[in-house]
Structures are given as C-alpha cells and as structure tokens.
Design goal:
It contains nine helices and nine strands. By secondary structure, the protein is an alpha/beta fold.
Length: 269
C-alpha cells in the first residue's frame, strides 16, 4: 500500500470511530426509537376525549427490582411514585419513564407517631424554608423524570400550615404538581397548594389497606364508582403481589365498563 492509500485508510478509520462515538453519545441523550414510540403510545392511551377518568398511583417504588418489573407488566397507563434515597430509586424512575408511564416523587414527611418513623430524611414540622428547599432538591435529584409529588406518610407534616406553605412555592418553581395522599383528615396540603398556584389533586381511595386480591378488587370498584359519579378519581396502591394481581384482573373489566385510565397529572388542576 502506498503512502497516500495508507493515509486515506487511516482517515476513514478515524472518521468511523468518531461517528461511532457520536452515535453512542446520542443514544444517551435520545432514547431508542422503540422506547420513544412506547412512550408516545402510552401517552396517547392516557388521553381520553370523554368519560370517567381514573388514575392509579403505585406508591413506595424504588425498593425492589422485581416489584418494578411486575408493575411495568400492567397493561394500562399508571403513575409510579418513587421513594428517594433507596437502592433502586433512580433506576426505577428511569425504567418507568422509558416504558412511557409517569414518575412522581414519593416525598417522605413526618407522621403523627414519631415511633413509626421509617425515613432518615424527611420533611419535618419546624424546618426552615432553606432546609425544605435543600431536602426537596436532593430527593428530586435521586428520582429523575419526576413531574409531580405526593406525600409518603406525612400525617403530622401535611397538617402543618407553615411547613406546607414552605413546600408548595418550591414545587411551583419547578413546575411540579402535588397529590395529597390524605394520610390524615386534618391535612391542609391541598389548600396550601391551591394558594401557591400549584396544580393539585387528592386521593379518593386506598386500594390495599387490606392486602388481599378480593379486597383490592372491591376498592378498585369503589374508585371506579367515584370516577363515574364525579368525573374523575385517584386511587393509591402499593407494589404488593396481591395488588398487582388484582389490577391485572380488574382493570380490563373496568375499561370495558367505560372507565378511562389516565396519569395523575391529568387530574391535577
């Protein structure tokens, strides 16, 4: 091979290498076509033109990869609320987003019974605004793709007007909506969100306080009736095997009944 041919070959190899690096970089910035198409299909499925709408939020995600795989097999649009600072928090949020479902931050807050406290990092009554801001930022960094927030525990925190008035402007700045899980009848979280101009909604039904398939199916029917009566409803469950089995069984029947399953963001206003 003469010198000019060798130089041309070397240049082609270098250009091919640069092209490969560019493709690899772009794959990190842009999801593969299959994943983008999947997200688009899920988003379209979650946009009914009319009829009763029901959003299912699955709380306490981020603890277990097997639970995530099982939840992601459910054949309807759902909202996964991911706990921060868990082993699989970021991975779970990324998988949910890639599947085309919705990610929320399951924000730990102080319960009434401090003896039941399970989170080392949580929003607590008496925290200054700068600490609320710092903790929220750290939690959101741990749960990528989050578009909204709902409270984990929080029966003490959500009943405190001062703490809620410190949290809600931070959500507004970030363009996040808020779902009040209503872990206490004394909650002021929804009203604080409205005052701060944060899109908000409230949970109507807990699906699995009794974690049996039969009980979850009954609670799903209650949530569907709420949606039929009021136009929309939010139900919250957890990634228990019984809950997942009940959803897989009951949701197709509810869809045939005319219930439209949507993301939680679509019911926040």
């Amino acid at each position: 091979m003469n010198h000019s041919n060798h130089a041309a070959t070397t240049l082609l190899i270098a250009l091919a290498a640069l092209a490969a690096l560019a493709v690899a970089g772009c794959s990190k910035l842009f999801p593969p076509r299959r994943e983008a198409r999947q997200r688009g299909e899920r988003e379209r499925a979650a946009r009914p033109s009319r009829g009763p709408r029901l959003a299912i939020i699955i709380d306490d995600m981020g603890n277990d990869r097997g639970q995530t795989r099982a939840v992601l097999q459910l054949p309807f649009p759902l909202t996964a609320s991911v706990l921060p600072h868990r082993e699989y928090s970021a991975q779970t949020a990324d998988q949910v987003w890639r599947r085309g479902d919705q990610v929320m931050l399951h924000l730990p807050m102080q319960p009434i019974d401090d003896g039941a406290r399970s989170e080392k990092i949580e929003l607590r009554v008496g925290m200054p605004a700068r600490q609320v801001r710092s903790l929220l930022a750290g939690m959101l960094a741990d749960v990528p793709h989050a578009v909204g927030v709902n409270n984990h525990e929080g029966s003490r925190a959500t009943a405190d007007p001062k703490l809620m008035s410190e949290l809600m402007p931070e959500l507004r700045k970030r363009g996040l909506f808020f779902v009040d899980s209503r872990t206490t009848a004394s909650t002021v979280a929804y009203e604080a969100a409205e005052r701060a101009g944060v899109r908000a909604a409230s949970r109507k039904v807990f699906l699995d306080d009794v974690a049996t398939r039969e009980a979850v199916v009954a609670q799903l029917d209650l949530a569907a009736r709420d949606a039929e009566r009021d136009g929309s409803a939010i139900a919250i469950g957890h990634p228990h095997p019984e809950t997942i089995a009940a959803l897989a069984e009951a949701v197709p029947k509810l869809e045939r009944r005319g219930i439209h399953f949507v993301f939680a963001s679509q019911l926040a206003r």
